[in-house]
Each structure stands twice: as C-alpha cells, then as structure tokens.
Amino acid sequence: MANSTSTGEVLVRFENGKRANEALRWSLFQLNKGFRISIAIIGFLFLWEAAPRLGLVNTTFLPPLTEVLQAWWRLLLSGDLADHTIASLTRSVGGFLLAIAVSIPIGLAIGWWKPVAQYLNPLLELFRNTAALAILPVFILLLGLGETSKIAIVFYACAFPLLLNTISGVRNVDPLLIKSARSMGLSSLSLFRKVILPASVPTIFVGIRQAGASSILVLVAAEMVGAKSGLGYLIQYTQFSFQIPEMYAGIISISVIGLIINYLLVLVEKKLTAWKQTYSE
Amino acid sequence: MTAKISIQNVQKAFRIKRNLGHLKEVLQPISALQDINLDVKQGEFMVIVGPSGCGKSTLLDLLAGLTKPNSGQILLDGKAITGPNLDRGIVFQQYALFPWKTALANVEFGLETKGVGRKERKQIAQEYINLVGLAGFEHRYPHELSGGMKQRVAIARSLAYDPEVLLMDEPFAALDAQTRETLQSELLRIWETTKKTIIFITHGIEEAVYLGQRVAVMTSRPGRIKEVIDVPFEARTSEEDLRSNPEFVKIRHQIWDLLKDEVHRAQEQEKDKTLKANSAKSNVKGVASDG
C-alpha cells in the first residue's frame, strides 16, 4: 500500500528532445527513491534475522529469516508452494474478476438512475459493513466446502466496495461537465459513454484497489477454516504440524502476492487516469 | 434586418425546495425571469448585465435549450429553440473542460458529436487552438493549464463546431484582473475574425461596456430587461485605452445608475432568503412565502 502514492512520482512524461537528459535524471531519481523506500524493509528483515540468533526471541516460534527462506525454497522445489499458490490465486482472482464483471455494470446502472441509488444505498452500506468472514459460515452451509464457497466469499468481499465506489463515481461526476456536454447536444447514451464513464474511472479504481486487497485477505481466512489447499490452508496446516519455518514461508508468500497484486492495480490505474496526475518535479 | 435571436415574452419560474429534510420538502415557485423581450442581430455582440441572482444564468440556460421557458419563446433564425444543439456554443465560468482529455481533444469534442471525421477534426481543432493563441499547448491536460488558458480552450471548443451563436456565462469572472483584460481584448479580436453572434453575460459593468455593442441591463429577481443601451464605439480593438475615453466613462456611469437600485434590492433579497432559510431550519412549519 505504501508504494501506491510514490509510484505517482515515477511517472515522468518524456518530451521530445529532452529524452536523454530526462532519462538520466529519471534514473538518479529512481536510485534515490529506491534507497528511501527499501531501507525500512531491509532494517526489518535484518532485525528478523538477528533477534532469534541473539536469543531475544524463542527460535522455535520465530526462526531466523534465513531459515524461513530455506523452508520457502524447499517448498518451492517440492512444488507444494506452486500448487497452493495456484489454488489460492484461482479463487481470489476468480472471485475478484467475477465481482468486477458484475458490480461495475450494476453500479453504473444504479448510479446513473438516481432514485434507485437513493433507495439501495443504505442496504448496500449494510452489506458492505457486514464483515465478509462473519457470513462465511452461511456460504459454507449453502455452498459446501468446495471451490464455490471460496469464490463466493471472495466475490462477496469484492463486490461491495466495487459497487459502492462505482455508484458514487457515477453520481459525483461534476454536473457542470454534464451540462456542458448536454449543451453540445449529446444523447443520453453518448453522454454516458463519453462523459460519465471516463469521469468516474478514478473513483471506480479506488473500489478496484480495495477489492483487490480484500480478495486476498478474505480468501486466506476462508482457506484457514475449510479447505484442503491454498496458502491459507498451508499456513494453518504447518502451524498444526509445528513446521514453523514453513508457516512463515507461507505468510511471506501471501504478503508478496498481496504486494504484487496491489502494484499491478496501481499500474493499471496510473495508465487509465494519467490525466489526473499532478507533476512532481 | 431580422433578428438572429429573438427572445419573446419569456417567463421562467422555479420550484425551490425549501427544506432539505426528506418528506417535508416545501415546493415554492420562484419567478426567475419575467417578460423578457430581446432581439439580437446577426453578428452582434450583446452583453447582458445584472445583479447577482437576477436570472442571467437562467436566461442563458434557456438560450442553450437546457431548460424550457414556462411561457413565451426564443427564436433562432425564426425557429423556436427546442433543445440543446450545436448551433449554439456555450462557454461557462468554470471552463467545464473534460479533465481526461488534452486541450486538443477537448476542442475536438463537439466536432466528434457533429460527426466530423477524425483527420478533419484534428485539423479544425488545431486551427481553433491557434486562433485562441494556444499553439504549443494542444497536448496539455486541463490541470496543466492556467485559468486563462483553460478558458481559451473552452472558447476554442465552443467555436470549433461552428455554432451560429456563442453564449458566454460570466466567462472571465474567475480570472485575475490582468488575465481578464487580456482575454477581453482577445475575445473582441476573435469576434471580429469569426463574425459570430455573441451573447455575453456578466455582472461587471466595465466589462459590459468594453465588450458590448449593446448592453441589456437586467433588474433584480424576477429578472426583466430594464433597458438596452447602445455602446457606439467603432474599432474597439484599436490600441488606445478605451476605458479612459470620456464617452466610455459616461456610458459606464449610465449603466451603474440603472443597476445600483437593482443591486441593492438583490442584496436585500439575498439577506431575506438567508434569514428565511435559517428560520425554516429551526421551525419546519414556519416557511413563510417569498416576496
């Protein structure tokens, strides 16, 4: 999450003619920035390595980083890690994409049709503020322990932030822009396509990022409750069988995946909302 | 010569929601415009000046076809205005540029709606970008432009699809004084180049006298046309400072005389409204009738 704001600074427009000069400045800037954003993480990892070795914490419960990484490597070589990761990603990406496919069109429709939004908003707020995990038992009861309930819970967790952000994106389009477009005689359909849609993209993306984060969050918890595969299951299982380094390896995998997903979403967001960027010289 | 735009006995009233509570909204009709009659000639620069809240912007919305009058009609080339159309272009005070489009793409927007082909569109847009003096800035996004430049883009956008009439709603009110003066003389230059009919709304008397061939003075709410004053200057774009011309000063004073009671009344109305809004908040039933 921390890099979501700083990546904005990276986007530097190349103007013709100044290319070489800009590139040099850009790489210097990158180097400096790379140091600034990684120093805290390096410190943290160093502390993780040192604390168990110096006897500050119990090595059994918090093995040094290098041991965890070795365990991670073993898991990778055995293919277990890949299996679990694929299982998890299929579920979370599946639920996430499903939520995008369903929520955004519905959100656009609801937002566009103002009275509907007024009536539905309280209900949607209620759903959104019901923690997805709280109703996980309901999903398991209704859909069983298989993949369907996992994907459904991810879908549920993703759908509401997406829906609400899409609705508010559409509803909060600057009325002046609508007026201006209408004064040029745009039909409702092209008004929607050419004005409402692009104007609400930034807000919709806030929802997409929230959904992306919660897709992983919810899934891992769901996998801990009832699953025979997946990274959440791996963490739970290794804890029960006291394979502590493996457990940490699972945790690290999850945070890295979370970071990568967030980074990718930020990247897409920057692409689509380049016009919103403010310059940082 | 027949009128390009003819506003005939136009009336417009609003129903104002007095309470923002959900069920107890009291709808009150408020007369915004009353009995407006005004003819604007082909190629004329007509300025409408009036105190704030007198319904100037309502009149502009009617001209744009965004709303319909309660009675009376507005004719463009003898035909009643039924809705928004590309035969009229509007420039708003707050620019209303699409922030996700570059300056050039913004100017192309109306042409796109008109169905002009991609290549031709680009070429026309570039022409108008040049006309408003923004060559070199066509690929900037609105947030990368200053207020004055944004307004230039907005003017270019409205001119690009070649409307019959250009409607301007206090276009320079949000700009600083120097930028405003520059844009005023630029606008006169553009007007002389394009020979468009312009209806320009403002609350600035000086601006009105400087720009308008005729100035229509409006009353406070309900808005009516109090008087239409001729501003008989030739060659406005000449180098001499028109603003210190004794004739200019005289006309400015004349308009000020016409306006000052209206401004005073408008301010009283505003105070009244604020008081009522406050009392309405504390006492839902006690909504007094207006005026």
Automatic annotation (TrEMBL), chain A:
It comes from the Bacteria. It is a multi-pass membrane protein. The keyword Transmembrane applies. Keywords: Cell membrane, Membrane, Transmembrane, Transmembrane helix, Transport. Pfam families: BPD_transp_1. It is found in: Cell membrane. The keyword Cell membrane applies. The chain crosses the membrane at residues 34-51, 96-114, 126-146, 153-171, 191-208, 215-235, 247-268. Its main location: membrane. Residues 85-269 form the ABC transmembrane type-1 domain. Belongs to the binding-protein-dependent transport system permease family. This is ABC transporter permease. The lineage of its organism: Bacteria, Bacillati, Bacillota, Bacilli, Bacillales.
From TrEMBL, chain B:
Residues 267-291 are annotated as: Disordered. CDD domains: ABC_NrtD_SsuB_transporters (cd03293). Residues 5-245 form the ABC transporter domain. Keywords: ATP-binding, Nucleotide-binding, Transport. Coiled coil: none annotated. It holds the Pfam family ABC_tran. The keyword DNA-binding does not apply. GO terms for molecular function: ATP binding. InterPro entries: AAA+_ATPase, ABC_transporter-like_ATP-bd, ABC_transporter-like_CS, ABC_transporter_ATP-bind, P-loop_NTPase. It comes from the Bacteria. This is ABC transporter ATP-binding protein. It comes from Paenibacillus oenotherae.
